[in-house]
Write a structure and sequence with these properties.
Blueprint lengths: L23 H22 L8 H30 L2 E8 L15 E8 L3 H7 L2 H33 L6 H13 L2 H12 L5 H8 L12 H26 L3 H9 L4 H12 L1 H16 L3 H9 L9 H11 L7 H30 L1
Antiparallel strand pairs: 1-2
Length: 360
């Protein structure tokens, strides 16, 4: 009985063709093939003379961006950190520095010098009532404005991604156009729209017997929130729209086969699939809320009661340049900016941890 081989082999496995009894030509061919493999691998591992390594080419392409990033981002941050430990202090110089201007030796002359004060600037910021009042306004602003803007952005993105709108490009451009307008210009336009003597909005409300003062102490914060929402809704809409267009079409086809309607497709497929885009949009909105500056600065020209520290960034600006707050100078202003940067990082971290917990 033959098992596992041709008749007469009795199951004995054949001799290997490359063993010691193999034909010399086969052994020579095998050796030649091995030498050729070794030669090819060796050629691939070495770099031809006169050519740069692949890694160096990548670094060369990245060098311009890295240099600009270092100059316009890292260096200013380090300079701000350094300045936050100094303060401009007026000292008395017993000897006049320049007698040509009428000073005589031995007369008292006030000289402003930058002196190292350690953590005094940070202590001043953390104990300032003006600073914490501004932080409270910014937190209240973000707690209302950010959710409203994110919901509006997501709704517009879902509407454009659906088949309801015909000319998608026109609507996409129209929603994004407010973001292309500089923030100062947008604030000036809305200041005109809010002014009671000039506002067409006030005229329309007057037809219904409503008199609304958008510059009152109770409404000014929400007037600024309206400007910010109008400006950045289109930008966040593009973030959501890019995420929606990356969803595989097979999911929509499977949902239609299962009998899902448009509302179920939007709420059970589209919204869960853009969770990453929502996290990005919220993080950018948190950072933007902490940096609230253009709108209150422009509106403060019309409303002097706001003061120089209505928001923390206004306080930093007026401390560094305006001279309306004491102590003034670059040092205390840098301390305000760094404290707000840490606060923005903490808010973003808390949001990411909450999102990760909810995702589990």
């Amino acid at each position: 009985m033959t098992v596992g081989g041709r008749g007469g082999d009795h199951g004995v496995p054949p001799r290997p063709s490359c063993g010691p009894h193999a034909h010399p030509a086969r052994r020579a061919g095998t050796g030649e093939h091995s030498d050729r493999n070794r030669t090819s691998h060796g050629a691939a591992a070495t770099t031809e003379p006169g050519t740069a390594p692949r890694g160096m080419v990548g670094w060369a392409f990245m060098a311009p961006f890295a240099l600009l990033f270092l100059l316009v981002f890292i260096v200013p941050i380090l300079a701000s950190v350094k300045e936050s430990f100094f303060r401009q202090v007026a000292t008395i110089d017993e000897e006049c520095a320049n007698p040509l201007y009428g000073c005589t030796t031995g007369s008292a002359d006030e000289v402003v010098r930058s002196s190292f004060v350690g953590w005094d600037n940070f202590v001043y910021v953390l104990t300032s009532e003006m600073f914490w009042s501004g932080v409270g306004r910014v937190m209240l602003f973000g707690a209302v404005q950010v959710p409203v803007m994110i919901i509006a952005s997501l709704s517009l993105a879902i509407l454009i991604d659906s088949t309801v709108l015909k000319r998608v490009t026109v609507f996409r451009l129209g929603y994004f156009l407010p973001y292309a307008i500089p923030g100062v210009i947008a604030a000036l336009v809305w200041t005109y729209l809010y002014t009671p003597e000039l506002s067409p909005i006030s005229d329309v409300l007057g037809w219904f017997g409503l008199e609304v003062d958008f510059f009152s102490t109770n409404l000014l914060l929400w007037s600024m929130a309206n400007i910010t929402t109008w400006t950045f809704t289109g930008y966040n809409m593009l973030i959501f729209l890019a995420a929606l267009q990356a969803i595989p079409g097979e999911l929509y086809e499977a949902a239609r086969i299962d009998g899902a309607n448009a509302w179920q497709v939007a709420t059970r497929i589209k919204v869960p699939m853009v969770r990453g885009a929502a996290m990005l949009a919220v993080l950018l909105s948190i950072i933007g809320t902490v940096q609230l500056f253009n709108e209150p600065t422009v509106l403060a020209v019309r409303n002097g009661w706001m003061g120089p520290g209505y928001t923390p960034m206004m306080m930093a600006y007026n401390t560094a340049i305006g001279g309306q707050i004491s102590p003034s100078g670059v040092g205390p202003a840098s301390a305000i900016s760094l404290v707000m940067a840490v606060l923005a990082g903490l808010l973003a971290l808390v949001y990411m941890l909450v999102q990760r917990r909810l995702a589990k």
